[in-house]
Write the structure tokens for this entry.
Amino acid sequence: MTALADLDTPVVTVDLDIMRENIRRVQAHLARHGIGNRPHIKTHKIPEIGKMQIAAGATGITCQKLGEVEVFVDAGVTDDILLTFNILGEPKTDRLMTLVKRVRRLAVVLDNDVVAQALSDAAARHGVDLHFLVECDTGFGRTGVQTPDEAFALARRAMRLPRMRFDGLMTFPNRDPNTRDFFDAALSLFKQAGIPVPVVSGGGTPALFTAQNFPMLTEHRAGTCVYNDAMVVSTGTAGWENCAMRVRATVVSRPTATRAILDAGSKVLTSDLYFMKGYGHVMEYPEAAITALSEEHGTVDLSACAERPKVGDVVHVVPNHCCVVTNMVDEVYGVRNGAVEVVWPVAARGKIR
Ligand SMILES: Cc1ncc(COP(=O)(O)O)c(C=O)c1O
């Protein structure tokens, strides 16, 4: 068995005990409040981890891209998948309908009539029924219909199209109080019209442990919480001890008394600042700041550190945003007690279509 100490750098590791505990804690919290857990696999892109989440009690998984669904279905995850993206264009709608035939329940989201019509046409062409949720923008300012009235009207139009089956409403992320107000208003419109809304799907790791404040949610989709990262720690949702993903890097240069250079730059840590001040948290030197990244160099300011690393020392960096780091590497190393127990190919790496 390879020792962690022998892993060449830079390398992305996942602490298996921390990850298992993260999976358990998320599942326990949502189950306690009677909310289904539908983890978003874009964080790890590894079917084996998705299967662990399902084994822990998840009702199904969330994917962002068709390519991710294809990889997970090929790996045997075929029970219950929600695809949270407007799927547009015949090449994609054809792939989607092929997948619908391979998954017990595959649902998609939509937020406009163009997508609804194209999905209906494709479903009719392929002779399948398509389950859909209407995506609602409850404050994030990304995709989603803008008002409860629009949600109701779009759902009604889309459910009248051939082969389209209305399953419910979806948002990202839960915002207090906007999401509750939006869903309350929308649900009363559906109720007045006698239209059942079996699924109300919320999401987001920072919103995870307050999901119970949105009593209408039937399920919650969180991704980042499987690993956690510096962004999640900054929101108070997790501590450094809950961060499973680390970028193991070597100090390759100490050009000045206050500067260290790591062999991990933007091609591992990514340049995603994610509202943070630096580019990651150095576990061994918590006062250090990763102030700049070149592609292969990480510049660390050690001014605030009493102890400072020397050339050749190895450090472990919790990235700002673990989901994007996942997409940078071919494999991640699952480690426990200083040993590598498993090497997982990041099977859905690069699946952006
Ligand atoms: C649609 C959707 N649902 C759920 C999530 C999961 O959010 P988080 O990574 O904060 O857990 C995301 C994240 O990007 C998302 O876009």
About this structure: The radius of gyration is 22 Å. Residues 40, 43, 62, 84, 172, 203-205, 221-225 surround pyridoxal-5'-phosphate (CB under 6 Å). The chain has a mean pLDDT of 98. The first helix runs from residue 16 to 32.
